[in-house]
Amino acid sequence: MSAPLLEVGDLKTYFPIKTGIFKKVNSYVRAVDGISFSLEEGDTLGLVGESGCGKSTTGRSILRLIEPTSGTVKYQGMEITSMDSKQLRKLRKDMQIVFQDPYASLNPRLQIGSIIEEALSTHKIGQNTKERKEMVMDLLEKVGLNRNAYERYPHEFSGGQRQRIGIARAIAVNPKLIIADEPVSALDVSIQAQILNLFQDLQDKMGLTYIFIAHDLSVVKHISDKIGVMYLGRMVEFASKEKLFSNPSHPYTQALMSAVPVPDPTIKKERIILTGDVPNPSNPPSGCTFNPRCSSCMDICTKIAPKPIELSPGHVVSCHLYDTEIL
Length: 327
Ligand code: SF4
Hints:
The protein is α/β, with parallel strands linked by helices. It has one domain (6-94, 175-322): Rossmann fold (3-Layer(aba) Sandwich). The chain is built from nine helices and twelve strands. The model has no long low-confidence stretch (mean pLDDT 92). Helix 3 packs across helix 4 and helix 3 (112-122) runs parallel beside helix 5 (159-171). It binds iron/sulfur cluster. Iron/sulfur cluster binds at residues 250-251, 288, 290-291, 294, 296-298, 301, 306, 319-321.
């Protein structure tokens, strides 16, 4: 059997907190605190959780846009975390990112054509300027934009169109994996659906693998094969979309799930309101970090961190409620 496209093992990314005149490190923000999962080619993993839970840092650490503190990231069996900058540059062609705010990621002084062409020339794609221009025009069409967008500037486009430009730039180099970091969060709901459809359409045509980051389960519901629910730097539940939606098991997943609208308005669903904010990741609660907000919290939850329990093949949850050794 061939290796998974991506294998992440016990990934940790800690940010030091420096204080005093000597800038001494006295604690760490544990932004990503032991994340593990694997992805097959063509899969879409939805990573969800409230802002500050570490999902974006996970995405950036996988690409080494942020240096992870420890753990492994294997792409097609190759260890990324130990690669030098030359090896990494080669690999960047295969792994692209689409950002939440397309406007901030597009140089306002450059025409759209130049922005996308830059990605092509960086990776030495296309024989000459003429060929690259033609490739860019084709890419614009592929993402649903007019070819005349080539000579226009970012400010001339709507939010949805700018996200299409961001996607065109990401797919220009023919990647295998795209990390989409909250790509529809800044868009109107009607536009969100169009962009999600575009992601799906491109996946069908190009065989892309996605890590799709969102704070809302309803956004990742349609596009994901697998879903990872993150809380305070950890993956509290991981399952196929079907298993997660039919049997959400972690109290945090259940709360997120209760906010997902149901298509049939006659079905009444009780909304679980989470009280309090996400705790400070530099000073997380002891035991299970979700314990101050959990309505099922037991005595042990404040003392011992839960370990991952496999409820059924591929469905893993970190919660004492399912630990038969403890209960
Ligand atoms: Fe709630 Fe305890 Fe489970 Fe944490 S381990 S989610 S506090 S029941």
